[in-house]
UniProtKB/TrEMBL annotation:
Annotated CDD domains: MIX_I
Lineage: Bacteria, Pseudomonadati, Pseudomonadota, Gammaproteobacteria, Vibrionales
Full protein name: Uncharacterized protein
Source domain of life: Bacteria
Organism from which the protein derives: Vibrio parahaemolyticus
């Protein structure tokens, strides 16, 4: 773009994403203190270069697009973009910076209480005792303690609740609640407001320097905790975009490598085939995604009486200091009650993993312990 009458002072560069239901656009900051250059200036490659990326799956008759889910662009050890896949295969931005800074979903957050009957009523055993939860003076739950005198109650909103034992001659007991993890599903998630776009722009060069970027796909929106985990070690979870560097030497993405491929059209009639064919002469970068069957996964029968939303399975390799967790809150149950927990593909040097399980040892305290389910499992046995 060419701008007239710019003052000779540093400018901040953004990507501006129009929104569908608000006048303010989503602003994605790229760089600060950039100096304008004369419009007559010529360069083989400009100091600031953005590359459009189209994530694609390998289908039966060619490439297809993901039908649903979320993509995350990690740049400078920060999740820079959260993009939701729309029903037609387009990509709609979430104003992630707004959500993380202003916490607008706080009104949607729920809390839970860990009831420890042995501490609340220390004089005698109250296992299987009926109890009630009162929130702001209103009864919101009734149930029975477990044999170990504990219980966990979710979907609360107040920071304190009263626990009442209707068959015991004792006063109501005030107990503090804790913030609950988000569960899989649509309730309480960040909302995508960006106008749907046919591809995802990522920074390739900024101020003359090639950038280190990653893209991660998730079937469900990541929680704040999962966003932080992704930022702490993107290389172990997400796909590197380092192969974009071939653009500087060839001005195309032919023969780029394993992750970056050219968008050359498709004979498939699957999701997004029309979008792919529209881009086949556009010289944009394709991002090759592993089919779901090519990612390690565990199918697990949900146990509603014992499983908690912050329980997880993990794949771990101690020798190479690698672990990836898949939380129950981020998996949805199928019609038979099973959850499919998917994991990032481990580094190339990791051939075998331990399957570990994070499980609550006490509902009354919310404490969690790590259990080794199986040791030295070949990654190949977890595929498909």
């Amino acid at each position: 773009a060419t701008f007239k009458d710019l003052e000779a002072e540093g400018k901040t560069l953004y990507i501006k994403i129009p929104c569908s239901d608000q006048p303010q656009p989503i602003l994605l900051k790229l760089a600060e203190d950039l100096q304008p250059v004369d419009k007559e200036t010529q360069m083989d490659e400009w100091d600031n270069v953005l590359v459009p990326v189209l994530p694609m799956l390998e289908g039966t008759n060619g490439h297809e697009l993901i039908a649903e889910g979320y993509f995350y662009v990690i740049w400078n050890n920060k999740v820079w973009r959260e993009v939701e896949v729309t029903t037609k295969g387009y990509f709609a931005d979430v104003d992630l910076e707004y959500y993380r800074n202003n916490d607008p979903e706080s009104s949607m957050k729920t809390r839970h209480v860990n009831i420890d009957g042995a501490n609340l009523v220390p004089d005698y055993y109250i296992g299987e005792e009926p109890f009630e939860i009162y929130q702001s003076g209103q009864k919101v739950y009734s149930g029975h303690l477990s044999l170990d005198q504990g219980a966990r109650v979710f979907r609360l909103v107040d920071e304190e609740v009263d626990v009442v034992f209707p068959e015991l001659d004792i006063d109501p007991i005030t107990v503090k609640t804790a913030l609950s993890p988000y569960k899989a599903g649509k309730d309480g998630l960040r909302i995508a407001q960006g106008v749907p776009l046919p591809h995802i722009w990522v920074p390739y060069k900024v101020a003359g320097e090639v950038q280190e970027c990653y893209i991660h796909y998730s079937e469900l929106a990541l929680t704040n905790t999962e966003l932080s985990e992704l930022e702490s070690d993107p290389a172990s979870i997400a796909k590197s975009l380092s192969e974009l560097q071939i653009y500087s030497s060839s001005q195309s993405f032919d023969n780029a490598g394993e992750n970056i491929i050219p968008v050359s059209g498709t004979a498939s009639t699957g999701t997004g085939s029309g979008i792919i064919n529209e881009h086949k002469e556009s010289n944009i970068a394709g991002l090759k995604l592993a089919p779901r069957g090519a990612l390690p996964s565990i199918r697990y029968l949900h146990e509603p009486l014992t499983d908690q939303p912050d329980d997880f399975f993990g794949l771990r390799n101690i020798e190479h200091d690698w672990i990836h967790k898949s939380y129950f809150r981020s998996a949805m149950k199928d019609d038979d009650g099973y959850m499919t927990l998917r994991f990032a593909f481990p580094p190339e040097e990791v051939k075998n993993v331990d399957i570990v399980r994070g499980v609550h040892s006490s509902l009354s305290t919310g404490s969690q312990r790590l259990v080794v389910v199986e040791e030295n499992v070949p990654i190949s046995e977890l595929l498909g």
